[in-house]
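Sample entry as discussed:
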Amino acid sequence: MASKTYATVALVLSLTIVFGSLVAAGPPKPTSKIWVSCPINALKLGICLDLLDSLLNITIGMPPKEPCCSLIAGLVDLEAAVCLCTAIKADVLGINLNIPLSLSLLLNVCSKKVPPGFQCA
């Protein structure tokens, strides 16, 4: 009878350890990458680079954001980030520019956010 009790206690403890570690680990993290392309013609995004230049250099007054922001207004944050990332990378060849900062600055001006985990690569 005592051996049955020990076996039951051992089973309950081992299940508690197994399920406790699963809960502590949290939900599984996604391992696949999502590929999103920019639905806007890249040449049109040159307007956004002009806005970025105005924001990075000291200007008097607020630079006009409408041409750029209206281009990306209908996009979700991820699409907007991909489009602006592509435009920034195409324009800064050979120029030492902080791409994540520039991307964040442009998205913020246009009331968009950098999606969590997004990297302009």
User: Anything to note?
Assistant: The CA atoms of residues 38 and 79 lie 6 Å apart. The radius of gyration is 25 Å.
